Amino acid sequence: MASLGNDKDISLEQEAEDVRLDPVLIARIFSTISLETPQETRITKKTLELVSEYIRLYATEAILRSNEARLEEKKKNDGLYPTTHGQAEKDDLLQEGLLDAVHLKEVAGLLNLDF
Questions:
Q1: Is 54 contained in some domain?
Q2: How far is CA 2 from CA 9, 32, 34, 46, in A?
Q3: Which of 9, 34, 66, 109 is a plausible cystine mate for 103, CB 3.0–4.6 Å?
């Protein structure tokens, strides 16, 4: 498991296991967007549960990899721009654990190839 840089790793992993997309929502998305003949196509409950788990794993991995990119960026930028001690602490508090689309963009290519 990748570290988020704090003591909440275990609770975050447990929370991630609890959060899943509703299989009914997935079936609705499939029938609305991707199935050519939704009336004639049947999707089993196990298939919907599997897709839900796959999406959960994908999202969790995206968050973990983005956070690793954020931590690497922080290491690279530490000391690059001199600030006062108070300002640096304030910036760290504001940015602690904050992921941005830039971090996701850095890992999106390899993430898609891995999945």
A1: yes
A2: 8, 36, 34, 29
A3: 66
Residue for token pair 């963009």: 105
Which domain, by its residues, includes 99?
10-114
* Domain assignment present for 70: yes
**Residue 107, Cβ neighbours under 10 Å: how many?**
19
Q: Are 62 and 16 in contact (CB under 8 A)?
A: no
In a domain, 79, yes or no: yes
End-to-end CA, the chain: 17
- What confidence tens digit (pLDDT) does each residue in 48-105 have? 999 999 999 999 999 999 999 888 887 887 766 665 555 555 555 455 668 888 889 9
Tell me the C-alpha distance between 107 and 69, whole Å: 7
**Statement: the pTM of the whole predicted model exceeds 0.70:** no
Buried b (16+ CB within 10 A) or exposed e, 64-83: bbbbbbbeeeeeeeeeeeee
